[in-house]
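re: that complex we talked abt at group meeting.

here r the seqs, copy pasted straight from the sheet so there may be weird spacing, ignore it
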Amino acid sequence: MITNFTKSNELRKKASRLIPGGAHTYSKGDDQFPELSPHSIISGKGSRIIDVDGNEFVDWGMGLTSVLLGHAYEPIIDVIKKELDNGVNFIRPSFIEAELAEIMCNQIPSAQMVKFAKNGSNATTSAVKLARAFTGKEIVLRCFDQPFFSIDDWFIGNTEISSGVTQGSKDKTKNFKYNDIKSLEDTISLYKDNGIACVIMEPASTEEPIDGYLQAVRDICTKEDIVLIFDEVVSGFRFHPKGAQYLYGVTPDLSTFGKTMANGYSISALVGKKEIMELGGIEHDKERVFLLSTTYGGETHHLRAAQKTIEILNNNDYEVTKHVWSVGKQIKDAYNYTVKELGLEKHTSMQGIDCRPYFYFKDNYMRTLFAQEMIKHGVLIQGIVPSYSHNKSEINQTMDAFEKSLKVLAYAIESKKIKELLIGQAVKPVFRKYN
Ligand SMILES: Cc1ncc(COP(=O)(O)O)c(C=O)c1O
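got the structure back, here u go
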């Protein structure tokens, strides 16, 4: 049973003294985990991580969904090491930039041109900017049920934490509901006269698209001259090596990739139709668009990491993808089975798409108590992010921990002792106005 977090607790204090939020990603913050949890991690291998107190955990977060093959995955490390010896950043582009761009164009249905960057936010924000420049319009329609698109004002201004964003930015982003074509049609009718530049959405995130939905979105955008952007920062490479757009058979005008593209290394991509993308280039006579331009966009070792990751994903009849979907399904089935056995269906379930399942809990006290108990049994969990390195031993350990933790939850609910058994505060949503 894991209960010693002595060094973690010291580092937790130091981090919150020195770093706003105590972490560099909100979803890694202390308000997202139980008090009895590791704060700082030392290393990871495969799907297991070790914290500063020497505790080992099965990791179901996998670098906020970015690590698809496994931590410190050797074939990726090998190409990175090799490239480090060649130097990583030069006065002109490395030859690998065009090499990887060609791979992306062969891989992703919507890719005719490609621009690399370092994170997903820059890619999605650039897609929005390009759409505005291409259409000469300003309104952005974003899918409201999907949790995150960018740290930039066009998106953050449309959330609960909009402090610091100008009213002008806030007014330019409007919402529609996923899997509800009427919601999109109504939103378009409402704002058409103001000029709609783009629709931005994940092709799928918490639920699969219903039959014909994505095609209907595609058709409306074509008819209304609206640029359709698929944010595939999470779904790309995870749902299918050619993107969720390939899986669901609908091609957007622009799309963005990141997370799983290089197994956790920092690279993202904006891809799309040549006639839109080339506005950011130097071979046209229209007004120029300052598209992505970053000092580190072409770092060679990360380009190589992406190249190798894509090569591995394409191998053996998409063996990695099949594994990831199957692990997610096994975990989801096991959780829901135990929940049913213990009569907890009204309080919790595991839902979502098999390659990216998530937990439903009736409230955050239950969620936090469950996470606290899972940690005691060596399983660190927020949602379920299956990887190629989650194998039998991790699945079995997780199922065993489900049973023990859900029994505690069942007892706590039955005896009305949830708050008593929970050490510290319940987790809170990232998007809230006040702490
Ligand atoms: C769907 C989606 N788009 C974009 C982003 C932003 O990516 P990054 O954190 O690399 O900027 C995220 C991050 O969680 C995301 O989930």
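couple things i noticed - Residues 76 and 339 are 38 Å apart (CA to CA). The longest strand covers residues 196-201.
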